[in-house]
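Technical annex, item 7. During the second reporting period the consortium partners agreed on a shared format for inverse folding records so that results from different sites could be compared directly. Each record opens with the tokenized structure and is followed by the designed sequence. A conforming record, contributed by the partner at site C, is shown below for reference.
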């Protein structure tokens, strides 16, 4: 019973899980931002290319 009580009070794994969640949220934000930036750059380059060939 003592080992079970000690196991329930142990919070060392909780910190690792919290850091993992924070890292995954940061990675998600970076991926979302990079995707949006890539789409914007693609649109801009397509516009410039069109203007150069027709103008």
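Designed sequence (site C submission):
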């Amino acid at each position: 019973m003592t080992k079970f009580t000690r196991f329930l009070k142990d919070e060392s794994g909780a910190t690792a899980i919290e850091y993992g969640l924070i890292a995954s949220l940061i990675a998600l934000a970076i991926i979302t931002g990079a995707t949006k930036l890539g789409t914007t750059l693609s649109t801009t380059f397509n516009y410039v290319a069109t203007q150069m060939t027709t103008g």
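The helical segments are 2-9, 12-54. The chain has a mean pLDDT of 89. All partners now use this format for quarterly exchanges.
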